[in-house]
Amino acid sequence: MLGSALVIIPLLAGFSRDTQATQAPADSVVYQVDPSSRLVVKTGKAGLFGFAGHTHVIHARGVTGVLVYRQGTPTSYLRLKVPTDSLEVLTPPDTAEIRKVTEAMRTDVLHVDRYREMTFAADALSASSGKMEFQLALTMEGTTRQVPVTADVSIGADTIRATGTFTAKQTDFGIKPFSGGPGGTVKVADRVTFCFDLVAVRNPAGAGGGAVPSNDARTVPGCVDLSEAKSDTARRPM
């Protein structure tokens, strides 16, 4: 979760389409984050008996936001937000465990009753040779930390797509990594991995072209769980 599952973010709220457009510089272009975008978090295992647990892939549904892009200048910026109650545990493929992991993640780790949104904010963005490096303001449980991110970026006529990963330690945000099982022998590692495949669209009503990510959040590069994929394949009838 961010505790057996996750650690994510509240920061920027109330970014309406109207204010997004009016606050953007005159020589910039506003891109809306497309619903096809994918953001997932992968947890690891820790401790002597970590092998007894599972890694988990958590899909952050309902990603919304805006990218304001100014070509040739490092003044572009990104704002994203995700409702914490939209987080969905995808692996392992065990319905009972998924329910337990999801409940613990929401109540014991993310406290969704108090922290209803997760947000990401990045400023001074500048893409060069298909790469973008920036500091991301990540806020969880009321604590903000800067984390370095490197993304692969492709810019089309009406779309911008960015893919990449970054990591964060739960304890840096005052979050105690989850432990459970008999005597607390199953532990989740402090460090978790965020993986993203984001598409921002210049004209949401009629934009076309540009690659659309797969609907399967488990296939986001960097968060693919090969061991789970192999075991799932082994269970399938021939």
Please outline the helices and strands:
Layout (H helix, E strand, L loop, with lengths): L1 H4 L11 H7 L5 E5 L4 E5 L2 E2 L10 E4 L3 E6 L6 E8 L3 E3 L5 H15 L7 E9 L5 E10 L2 E13 L3 E11 L9 E2 L5 E3 L2 E11 L24 H10 L3
Antiparallel strand pairs: 1-5, 1-14, 2-4, 2-14, 3-13, 4-7, 5-6, 6-8, 8-9, 9-10, 10-11, 11-14, 12-13
Q: Mind explaining what this structure looks like?
A:
The protein has 238 residues and is of the alpha+beta class. The chain contains 4 helices and 14 strands. The relative contact order is 0.23. Mean pLDDT is 74; it is low at 4-22, 48-52 and 226-238.
- Low-pLDDT stretches are 4-22, 48-52, 226-238
Beta-strand fraction estimate: 35-45%
Between the first and last Cα atoms, what is the distance in angstroms? 32 Å
Major β-sheet annotation: 8 strands, antiparallel, barrel
- Structural class given helices, strands, pairing? alpha+beta
What's the helix count? 4
Question: How would you name the oligomeric state of the polypeptide chains in this document?
Answer: single chain
Spatial shape: globular
List how many beta strands DSSP finds.
14
- The main sheet orders its strands as 1-5-6-8-9-10-11-14
Residues in helix, %? 10-25%
